[in-house]
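note to self: the first set is below, dont mix up w the second
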Amino acid sequence: MTLSDSAAAMPAAGGPPGAPSGQPRRALARSAGIVGAATTTSRLLGLVREQLLAYLFGAGNAVDAYNVAFRIPNLLRDLFAEGAMSAAFVPTFTRTLVRQGRAPAWRLASNVLTTLGLATGVLVAAGIVFADPIVTLFASEYAQVPGKLELTVQLTRIMLPFLALIAIAAALMGMLNALNRFFVPALSPAMFNVASIATMLLLVPVMPSIGLHPIAAVAAGVIAGGLAQLLGQMPLLRREGFRYRPRFDWRDPDLRSVLLLMGPGTFGLAATQINVFVNTVLATGEGTGAVSWLNYAFRIMYLPLGIIGVSIATAAVPAIARHAERGDRGGMRHEVANGLSMMLMLNLPATAGLIVLAHPIVSLLFERGAFTPEDTVATAGALVPYAVGLAGYSAVRIATPAFYAMEESRTPVLVTAGSVLVNVGLNLLLVRYYGYVGLAVGTSVAALLNATVLLTVLRRRLGGLEGRRLAGILIRTLGATVAMALAAYGLMGALTAAMPGPTLWMQLARLALTIGGALAVLMAAARLAGLREMIDLLRASAARLRRGRR
C-alpha cells in the first residue's frame, strides 16, 4: 500500500456526531502526519535553498533585489498553493464529486485550469510590460544604490511567469486533496526546491558570460521549480482518471462558484502574506540587508508553519467541506476543534523553541560564505517576534476555509481587511523606533488579532468550538511548553560552556543535543498531561518517513 493509498483508506476525520471523539482526532492526526512527513521534506529542502542563497550572496544588495522581485509571485504562490485554492476550489470540487461523480468533477477541473491559465497569462504579460513602474512604486529607495533598482526590475520580469505555473499547480493540489491524496501534493514544493537548487548550482557561474548578474540564476531556478511542481503531480492525477481537455464555459455554475469564492478567499487568507509584503516595502527604506534579514527570519519561522499549520489544515479542510455539504454543523465544529487542538499542542512548543534558540538556529543554518555574524544577529532579532505570531498564522489556515465551506465569504474578508490595516498602522509606528524588527512585531500582532476575531465569529456560527476541551489542552500544553523551554535554555547554556567552538560540526552537535533533550522533556510532559494527539501525530510522521525510506 502506498502512502497515498493508505491516506484514502483512512476513515474521514470528523465522523458522525455520535462517533467516539478519540477516533476522528486520531484519524486527523494520521492524515496530518502524512502531509507533515512530505511537508517536512519540502521545508527542509527550502531551507537548503535559502542556505545556498545566503552562502553565495549573503544579505547584500543583490539578495535585497531578489527578495523584492520575488515577493509578488511568491505572494501568489502562498495564497494559491495554501490559501484561496483550498478555500474555494476544494469545497466546490468536493461537492461536485459527492453529488455528480468524477466525470462532472473532471469537466469542472478542466474549466478551472483553462480559466486560471488565461487569467494568469494576462497578468504575467501585463506585469512584464509594466515591471519598471511597479517595482519603482514598491522599492523607490533602491534607486539610491546604483544598479539596484534596475536589477530588481530585471529579476521581476524573469520570475513573473511563475504566477501561471503555480496557479495551475495549486489547482492540481486541490484536486488531489479532495480525492484524499495528501502525500504527493504536499511533496510537490520539494520538487520546486530541488529544481531551484539544481538550476542555481548550474547557472550561477554561467550568468556573467551572458551579461547577467549571477543572482539571475536564482530567478531562473524559480521558473524551473514551478514547472517541476506542476508536472510532478500529473502522474497521480492521471492514475485517478483525470485527462485535461481545454474547456472554457463561463455559464458553468460551479466555475462561477469557484471564482466568486476565490476573490474573497484570496483576500480572506491573505493577511499574513499581505503583511509580509508591506514589511518588504517598508524595509526597503531601512538600508542594505533589512529586506534580506526579514526574509531569512520569515523562512525559518515558515518551517514549523508549513509542517504544523499547513499540514493540519490540508488534512482538515476536505473533511470540513464534506460536513458543510451535509449541513452537519456539529461535525464541522468537531473537525475545526480537532484541528485547533492539534495546532495548539504543536505550535506553542515550536514558538518557544524558536524564541529560545533563535541565535544558534540562524548561526547554524546561514552563517557561512557571504553571510556574516552581524547578519546572524540581525536575522535572529527578527525571528523572535515573527515566532510569537506562529499560532495566529496557523489558526487562520483552518478558520478561514471553514467560512468558505459554509459559503460565507464576507466575514473573513472584513476581518482580514481590519488586520491588514492594524498591521500597516503598527508597522508605520514601530519602524520609526525599532527599525526592521518593529515590522516583525507588527506582523505577529496582526496575525494573532486576525485569528482571534475569526475564531470568535466562527464559534458563534457553529454554536461553539468545544471551548472547555480547547482550554484544557491550552493549559496543559503551556505547562509542557514551559518545561521544554527551560530545558532548552539550560541545555544550550551548559553545552556552549562544555563544547565551545564556532565550527559547523560543534554548532550542529550543540543544537542537536539541545533539541533532542528538549523534545524528550516535551514528550515526557505531554504524557503526564495526557496530550495523546501530539504523540499520535509525531508517531504517524515518523512511521511515514520510515515507510518512505523502505
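second set (the one i keep forgetting abt)
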Amino acid sequence: MWLKEKKALKDTDIVKAIFVLKHDDSSVRAFEKTLIDISTPSSVNYGKWLKPDEIIKSIAPAEANVKLVTDFLAKFGVTGRVSKFRDMIHVTMPVKTANEMLQTEFALFRSVSERDVALPRITKPYSLPSEVAKVVSIVDDIMRFPAMRSSPKSYGLDTTPLKDDDEFGACGTKCNGYTTPAVLESAYSYSSPVAKVAAGNSMSVAEFQLQYWDQADLTSFNKACGTDASVHDTIGGNNERICSAGGCVEALLDIEYIGAVANPIPLTVLYSADYSLLDWVDQVMSLDNPPLVHSVSYGNDEIQQTSDAYMQSVNIEFMTAGAMGLSILFASGDQGVWGRSGVGATYHPDFPAGSPYVTAVGGTDFASKGVIGEESAWSCGGGGFSDAFARPSWQEDAVSTYLSRAAAAGVLPSSEYFNASGRAYPDVSALGGQVNPYCVAVKGGSSFGGVAGTSASCPVVAGIFAQLNNVRLSAGKPALGFLNPLIYANPQCFNDVKDGSQNNCNRGTTGFSTTVGWDAATGHGSPNYACLAKVV
C-alpha cells in the first residue's frame, strides 16, 4: 500500500518517465517467429543470435515516430535519451514541466511497509496530443506502484540433532539441516567451481528496492561453506551499511548461491532503487557486453500491472533480449496460485513469470527432510496459466498432455479458476521450500539463517545454465539465449516431480497438483546438469 504525502512536491523536484513507442504488429509477429526459430535446437538457425542493427531493422518503430516524440519533448525544453533499440525514450524533468507536458498532477507517495521508499506518481490520468498518442504505447514509471518486495521466508536454526545426509552439514553447525552448496551440487549433478571460464561467459542478478549486498557476509558464507562466490561488478550502486542490520537477505541469497553454483563465471549485480522492468531490461541491453544469464527474484500479479499494453511492451523487450542471445529467468512467486492479491474468484498469475519470453522457476522441497533424492512440490510455489498471454507453440504438447492427464486423474482445478489456453508456468523448478531452507550468511557476517522461496530456486537454476553456457562457449558454440524451446525439447534432462501438495499456499483452497511429466506446480522439474551438458 502507498499513501499520498501531505507535503506537496516542489516545482523543481525531479520526476522520471519512459515514453514507450508502439511497434508494428506484423513486425512483432515476424520477430517472434525469428526468435523461436533461432532458439529451437532442431533448427538450422539455432544460436544465430541477432546483432543490434538486425534487431533495429526488424522491429524498431519508424524513425519518424521517434522524431515526433523527441520534438514534442523539445517543446518543453526536455531532451530524452533514446534507447539502444529505438523504442523507448527515457526522460528526466522537473515536476512543473511534467505536469504541463502530460496535463496531469504529480504527488509524492510513500510505501506503508517501507517508509524509506517514496515515489512521485500522477494523481489523475495523463494526456498526450493526439498525434503523439498515436505512436506512444504508454508513458511508464509515472502511475504504477511497485509491490514492495517481501524478504524470502526466514527460519531459525534447527536444533534437532543432525541425522541428515552429510552434505547438509557442509557449512558447519550454524547451518544445521539447511540446504548448502554441497547439497545442490549432489542433487543436480554439477561440479563447482568451474574449472576454466570460457571467454565471454557471464551472469547477473537483479536487485531492487534497497536490496544491497556486503563483502563481509559473502566472505563469511565462503569460509563456512568452502565456496568462493564473488561479485565481479556492481552497476547502480551499493550500500553495505544496510546489511549489518539484516536488511540484505534477498540480495545475499541471490549472490551467495548463484556464485556458489557457477563461480568463477563473472557475476554482475544490477541494482535499481525502483522496481521498473522496462528500465531494468533497457539497462541490461544498453551494456556493451551484457551478462549472458540473468536471475531475477521479483514480480507482481498480472492484475497488478498498469495495463495489457504495459505487459506487452515489457514482453517485446524480453523478446529482444532473447534474440540477442541473453537468458532471462524469473522466480515464479511464493504465494501459490493466488499470488500477492490473495484468494479471489480466479487465480492470480504472476508477471513476469507468466511472460512467454522468460524462463519461470518454481520451488520444490525434498520429499524426505534431510535426504537428497526425490523432490516434491512446494505448496507456495507460484504456477498456473496466464490470463494475458496465449500458450506458445514450444509448450503446446507438454501442457495439453498435462491438462488431459490431470483431468483424468481428477486433480485439475475447476476451469472457472484459470485460463487453460494461457501461457503455462513454471518451466522448471529447484529447491526453494521450507523442509530444508537455504543456509545464508546475514547481518554483516555475524549470523547465519535459513531462507526459503523461489528467490532461492531462481539463482540456482540460473547458475546451472551459466555453467551450461560455459560448455557451449568452450566448444566454440554461441550462448544458449532464450531457453524455453531447449527446455521443452529435453524433458528427460529434468528430475520429474511427481509428489506434493497443491500449490494453493495452504489457503484451504484448490491449486495445481503434480503429475508425471510437466505440471503447473513444478514445470518439468529440477535440472539434471549431467544430462543437459550432453544436449547443449
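remember for set 2: The first helix runs from residue 25 to 39.
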